[in-house]
Amino acid sequence: xxxxxxxxxxxxxxxxxxxxxxxxxxxxxxxxxxxxxxxxxxxxxxxxxxxxxxxxxxxxxxxxxxxxxxxxxxxxxxxxxxxxxxxxxxxxxxxxxxxxxxxxxxxxxxxxxxxxxxxxxxxxxxxxxxxxxxxxxxxxxxxxxxxxxxxxxxxxxxxxxxxxxxxxxxxxxxxxxxxxxxxxxxxxxxxxxxxxxxxxxxxxxxxxxxxxxxxxxxxxxxxxxxxxxxxxxxxxxxxxxxxxxxxxxxxxxxxxxxxxxxxxxxxxxxxxxxxxxxxxxxxxxxxxxxxxxxxxxxxxxxxxxxxxxxxxxxxxxxxxxxxxxxx
Length: 327
Fold this sequence. Notes:
2 domains; 36% helix
């Protein structure tokens, strides 16, 4: 088994330059949903699909900058219910399996045979689930902040674990929930985020989003994405994320990804993991590495969860450059 690389060098590569989509649009995916997608980079370049986090997050211009736009054809899309996809914040027919089929619909629409799949946090969960379901369509995987969506990980971040490292932020997270309901914070939030009263939804969404924002970077709360302060974004993010977590990611059993790794062990892969990632601790990435012996695994010792931490950016840029050479 290859030893993990621990990165700490003084020279670090930055993001590729700003680039604009050369195509974009909405694609109906069944039921009420239309997903927004865009293509960036080189139209005849090597194809990749970039999966955002959450669930319930959205694509943003920075995500285009992890790939060399002169060599890659980048495909990004807002998953059901979030970003510019329609209808906003909808939980109807919004499951992991629906999102996997959306990726396939988009691949077919764009005429892609196989592609590199890139994802961080929930994006890594979706990337792995997609690869396990459609291994013949995945040329390589580049993952950051690995999240396997197990009960153990959910307990750590939403019940007891991260709360001991961030008691001040945890107190704010608990504030909308009565003491009697705090034994199951995900259920308590799910009740509020699906309430008919938008004011109750908004209060819960603001607290849910702030908890994640406060814990995602070693640079502190100032690194929290500004969109977390926008109530429409926060409601979609919190509602969809909590919906997925309350349903165990819609997996048939806890630990489903690791139990199915034999289906994708042959696919070339890269994992980049912040040593001090509190949102998705390194234990999950380490377990994944153990089940995927040939994966290239890099620990960034001075990073948390955020994709924009300098060491994480450097490691991901090197990974996508290496992935370009996979054939």
